[in-house]
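Researcher: I'm preparing a figure for a lab meeting and need a structural model of a single chain. I don't have an experimental structure, so a prediction will have to do for now. The sequence is pasted below. Please return the structure as tokens so I can convert it later.
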Amino acid sequence: MTGASSLRYRSLILVPAALACLALGAFGYTKVMARIGSGAAPAAAPAEHQADSIVVSKQDKRLYLLRGGAVLRTYAISMGSQWDQGHKQREGDERTPEGRYLIDWRNPRSMAHLSLHISYPDADDSAWAASAGVSPGGNIMIHGLPNGWGALGGLHRMVDWTDGCIAVTNAEMREIWSLTPDGTPITIHATWTP
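Model: Understood. Here is the structure written out token by token.
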């Protein structure tokens, strides 16, 4: 075996092995960080500064916090990898739901940096899924980045990586958390313009 052939042979073995080790390390790191959490949640903003509704425009990949119909804040988002295939219909379809829901609870110790639960599936979603013989899925959230990966910041928007959730940066999630009380209505549109 010549020197070049030997080097090529080693690289065919070492490169995949190194990539496998990196992937395994990243997976392990993510699992550990998911259990540790991401720190204390911020305090709620004063009531007069909080949003009274949320609107998401999937086509524009934007989340809007509104108060009295006026836009308070706008955030660029990532969604499920099949977000452009319409309304979420079943568990595992990687779609982000469309329709009117509520922020019905929050999790300060979620596997991603903070999370606000969207009340999907509603009665209509559940009825449709039952008639189709599928699970509608659930646990659709607005959340930050997976714990331990916050340094990625806005780079996460390069890929729609969630399982149907709506993702923002950790700093944005802290702001959304403080400005959005439980019970806030959220409307998710295929497209919407303020």
